Amino acid sequence: MLTPQARVIELPAGATPVDFAYHVHTSLGHRCRGARVDGHMVPLTTALQSGQTVEIVAAKETGHEGPSRDWLNPQLGYVRSPRTRNKVRQWFNALELERDTAAGRERVERVLQREGRTALAFEELARRLGFEAAGSMFVAVARDEVGVRQLEEAVRGPAVGGAGASPAAAPEQLPIVAPRRRAREAGGRGDGVLVVGIDSLMTQLARCCRPVPPDAIVGFVTKGHGVSVHRENCATFARMADRAPERVIETAWGEEALHGGADGRARRFPADVEVRASDRPGLLRDVTEVFARDRLNVTAVQTLSRQQVASMRFTVEVPDAGQLARTLAAVREVNGVIQARRR
């Protein structure tokens, strides 16, 4: 294919004007709104032929232009080149990152104002939470990987175990227990959770937030069902704690949960994940193959497709949050996937 200036652009067979625009320049691809082939306007889904002259009709550079989500839907035929698809996906990922950074910064600023600590530097707060940069902290806060309670404790104190800390360091950063209090492995179902200060309490991992080691966790003493263990940023726990703060109990993961049992085998914990993607034949198979490759057992799945966008919810069994994060990163690379995150 040729540009109007007779520059040769090499594209894979069946490439479209959108592919052509992105191969000329990424910015031109983002601003692509139409195309002329040999002087005639054509749909953006047109398959280009060798030797044709292609002219891209582009939006003005205003800072708000961008690709359409339809371009990620393989059934609509806007994009044929994997290189183009990756650039479109990167644009949406960057947009989501920008929005999350702004939202997280706003939440952090509200907590600083409420605690009267507006002079505290973002970089120092990020360090306390275990992040290398303030931007990473903002994103984690926006995505509820760092809860309000955890953020407040970091603002007030010098060190808090954060979502950005490495799994190996996480056990040392869980809440510190006064020497006079006892800490024994909880009895009952043996969820590998250490309940601080109370012996032989039955524990259960809350289904509303599905905590997984080394998530920061907290317990709530229920009526007749022992201690319900939640992630610290769990909205359900926050509501219960507001109603009955006297039932909140410090908790931490036990050795079995963090390092496996006496037989050396790692425990498995259920986790809920959500995947949004452009619907296509074989999509569910491709996503579940990623779980199978990483040896994560899928125990439940729900799918819903509307306007060519598939929403899939999985419950998978994982050894730790780090493995789950790596698997979700691999799922995001599946053709057509727009978003993959832990619920």
Roughly how many Å is the radius of gyration? 25 Å
User: What number of domains?
Assistant: 4
Cα-to-Cα separation, first versus last residue: 45 Å
Q: How large a portion of the residues is in β-strands, by DSSP E?
A: 15-25%
Q: State the major sheet.
A: 6 strands, mixed
- Helicity level: 25-40%
Spans of at least 5 consecutive residues whose pLDDT stays below 50 are 159-189
Q: Secondary-structure element sequence?
A: HHEEEHHHHEEEEEHEHEHEEHE
Strand line-up across the major sheet: 4-5-9-7-8-6
List the helices and strands and how they pair.
Layout: H1 17-24, H2 26-30, E1 32-37, E2 40-42, E3 54-58, H3 82-114, H4 122-128, H5 134-142, H6 148-156, E4 183-185, E5 193-196, E6 203-205, E7 217-221, E8 227-231, H7 235-243, E9 248-253, H8 255-259, E10 269-278, H9 283-293, E11 297-306, E12 309-318, H10 321-331, E13 337-342
Parallel strand pairs: 6-8
Antiparallel strand pairs: 1-2, 1-3, 4-5, 5-9, 7-8, 7-9, 10-12, 10-13, 11-12
Helix pairs in contact: 3-5
